[in-house]
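In this section we turn from sequence analysis to structure. A common task in structural bioinformatics is to predict how a protein folds when a small molecule is present, because the ligand can shape the pocket around it. The inputs are simple: the amino acid sequence and a SMILES string for the ligand, here adenosine-5'-triphosphate. Study the lines below before reading on.
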Amino acid sequence: MATQHSRSAARVMLAPAVFLLLVWMLVPLTMTLYFSFKRYLPLRGGDQGWVGFDNYVRFVTSSAFWPSVQTTLLIVGGVLLITVILGVLLALLLDQPMWGQGIVRILVIAPFFVMPTVSALVWKNMFMDPVNGLFAHLWKFFGLAPIEWLSQASMLSIVLIVSWQWLPFATLILLTAIQSLDSEQLEAAEMDGANPLARFGHIILPHLSQAITIVILIQTIFLLSIFAEIFVTTQGSFGTRTLAYLIFQRVLESQNVGLGSAGGVYAIILANIVALFLMRIVGKNLDA
Amino acid sequence: MARTVTTQRKSLNTAIAWGIGLLIFFPVLWTILTSFKTEAEAIADPPVFLFFDWTLENYAVVQERSDYMRFLWNSVIIAGVSTLVGIVVAVPAAWSMAFVPSKRTKDVLLWMLSTKMLPAVGALYPIYLIFIELGLLDTRTGLVIVMMLINLPIIVWMLYTYFREIPGEILEAARMDGATLRSEIIHVLTPMAVPGIASTILLNFILAWNEAFWTLNLTAAQSGPLTAFIASYSSPEGLFYAKLSAASTMAIAPILILGWFSQKQLVRGLTFGAVK
Amino acid sequence: MGHIVLDNVKKSFGDITVIPPLDLQIEDGEFVVFVGPSGCGKSTLLRLIAGLEDVSSGTIRIDGQDSTAVPPAKRGLAMVFQSYALYPHMTVRKNICFPLRMAKLDKAEQDRRVEQAAAVLNLTEYLDRRPGQLSGGQRQRVAIGRAIVREPAAFLFDEPLSNLDAALRVGMRLEISELHERLKTTMIYVTHDQVEAMTMADKIVVLQAGIIEQVGSPLELYRTPRNRFVAGFIGSPKMNFLEGPEAAKHDARTIGVRPEHITPSPSEGVWKGRVGVSEHLGSDTFFHVHMEGCAEPITVRSGGEVDMHHGDAIYMTPDPGHIHRFDGEGLRIA
Ligand SMILES: Nc1ncnc2c1ncn2[C@@H]1O[C@H](COP(=O)(O)OP(=O)(O)OP(=O)(O)O)[C@@H](O)[C@H]1O
Ligand SMILES: [Mg+2]
């Protein structure tokens, strides 16, 4: 299915999408690179000339840099760990025979439809508020002192909120994958004397590996750039400042575009490292 | 599959699954319930669950305070138009990748996905400048363009995975039957891929609807969608849970209802077409 | 209409040459069958003619016109695919009508041709069904219907019957032959089933590894195979080959005798062997005979019922007029 004719048609048809994304990628990238070598403060004197690698050095040596990288990786890693593990368990559960499976499935996927600003606000105020939140009531009910979630356990809270949003996605993909497993395979293993744990470890889990890769890939794409959850809850305080949020503050709050742009370049590098790593795995699994 | 399961076992499964399902759903449920309470009941200690004086007052106040309909309309336009434009750009691209694959197809696809990994903050200021230059700041057109671009890789990928399930022979048959490339795509491929395209549209509509970085940073009074509408409720602290809940419910209701009615496509779409 | 000439046509996928340069001429109105073992390039050759693949070099002329670079839609050919390739979202009527719609024929003419094709193929009562609601044989007929409404210069079939069960296959074989008789349009038919080839073809093209081994009428191929490969491929059951002293007696490296040209006898004959498996088909009986100095058992046909069993001694006499002789290269010695 490939003639010269269809191949050139294919190039023409692919061109608009590639062109748009190329522009979308290259134009801001070039501008960010350009600003990153300048001292540029829009509200305080504007463009003040070239400064070489100054911004880069200042950005990494600022005390906020490494913690922000750490925070980013912790949030992404924590959410991935929670959603994948709970997702597998939940998928196994939902695959069991039960009454009202369809309704349970709707209940479980509902959080995915809630926009991040709403879920952050709801969690922050109605659950995690140390005075009026439901958790505070619950803690008091058991005679415990309410926790100030977003300051005392800020990272845990953010990971919890984000995991709640992404658990449906992981569960659904993994459930679909489990349902595609040929039940004869499981029965054969049972005949061979494999107990449920062995069946899970030797048959179900390997079968799920592709789905898990997909979950990790897609979630990482979205998690690296979470913004609203932090913007609405802690505004980056209490150790929840991700690299993305740090850059956001540099550019928008302190209006230091040069410095923020250098940060942007670091973020791009970090994203590329993660992407490279992920694409390796996914590329291999994509055709499987 | 034809395993008989004891009723006892099934009851246990049902109980556990419903318990967990309700637990996961609870924040949504609680928000909806609270939106019908008075502010006093909303923070009552101990909390009231169902037995309170149901009221619609919060909705009235929210509508009055912040012109819900305008935000809603902006959301619909931004999410809807960006998704449709994305589909129009992506269908030909996905056709190329699925039916005329080359050695580079996979690389192009992965490159497209990787553009989604680039940190948006890195591009924020440049885009901001460009938007000012082109007069796109705080316009729906501007947001449609951005939403289309950020979702394009996902749309292309999803369509690609759906198209790959369609046997190439059928398209070849159309070609032999004298169809031009245009008719091949419009009359043969697209109708065959309707379920996949529907799932793609639905999922990307939701992603665009819920997107909260660009919508918060590139809009102000004019073109703000519901994400901006709800963000305006984040500042005043204190006794406003019922109103916050009403506003939240209004922001998520359209998607929840849409999701409810198109469950099958959604479940399919939510897997991004990647898992069969 | 329907005169196709391949001139020095070559096809490679990357570094792999699937079809080395070949020449082939297909006359107007001919029923040509491409046969050969799996992977020999039959489909590729057909797709080159169809225009679904580009030739790597060489030219294809259809009715005297150089069509090498003409896209499939413009070649005026119709193709029936192995998987039928029906449009699942269209009714049978719409499927058959599709090529006419693409050709922008006027509506009345479209309807007329669809009705006519449906009548010819006994599809009239299924016109409003979807392909998913049809049996394999009916789907096959829809695919043929879609091909005939265009009144193409030639029909291309790629193993159209291989998804059907044995009984249906015989029926469809006859229908396609019937269609050819009626339309007198050039047909190119790909199969790896030599029975289909023998029964349907005016002209058989035997391919091996992309090379044309022989072109000829079925009987020519049967009577005077050009080489050992064709001799072994055409005819069922396969021709027996003997080497060594038996062949030397006929001044050949190898000799070949078809099972139907050997007379078995319990008492006397030229060759002696021992009966192995025997297959009783009612009208015929095939004995697989083990003979000293022969690695492969020799297949012998006997008409009617013969009373010989496993392990019995058997004598065989080849018909001297039907002994095929081949040289060291496997080529026929005249
Ligand atoms: N797109 C392609 N890329 C690389 N090699 C190909 C391609 N298409 C076919 N081939 C190779 O060309 C050879 C001929 O294939 P072709 O499909 O023509 O065989 P065939 O004779 O139709 O076999 P069958 O009877 O099994 O259908 C095979 O070895 C096949 O692997
Ligand atoms: Mg073939």
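The interface with chain C takes residues 1-5 of chain A (CB under 8 Å). As an exercise, try to locate the residues that line the adenosine-5'-triphosphate site and compare them with your own expectations.
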